[in-house]
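User: My collaborator sent over this chain with a note saying "see what the structure looks like." That's all I know about it. Can you take a look?
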Amino acid sequence: MKKMRLLFFLMTFSMLGVVDTVRGQEVLDWVTLADVKFKKEYSEELMLEYDVATFGNLIKEFDGKEVQISGYVIALDALGVSFVLSRNPNATCFFCGGGGPETIVDIKVKPKALKRYKMDERKTFKGILKMYPDNSGSFIYLLTEAEPI
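Assistant: Without extra context I'll predict from the sequence alone. Here is the result:
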């Protein structure tokens, strides 16, 4: 019965354009990435409370798969070569209180694709999606081997 429900949801979301297959990659959107719940845990080592993610069945299907995602580039360093992709522009992004950890994806580009991107530039990247439920030292979503499309 659970498989039937999941199949129904995937078919429904596919028809609505939430999940498409293009050139062998799954096209993710921010609704799909929001299929996560958080609970607070305390780390004695770090002496702080942090969120632990529990990923829903819809997003779990994409862990370790090649995907495409579009969003706004937000630089994490002065050179603009370390960055995340955000659901929202910089003024309303996760770091400014405009969303949760599910609204950003850490982008690790292939060396040949490494370049400087402009803040708030709207870009699409393809790469391998990795998910990390314990985001005490990282983001919950990471796109590895990424390259711009």
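A starting point for your reply to your collaborator: Strands lie at 20-22, 25-27, 36-43, 48-55, 66-75, 83-86, 104-109, 122-131, 141-148.
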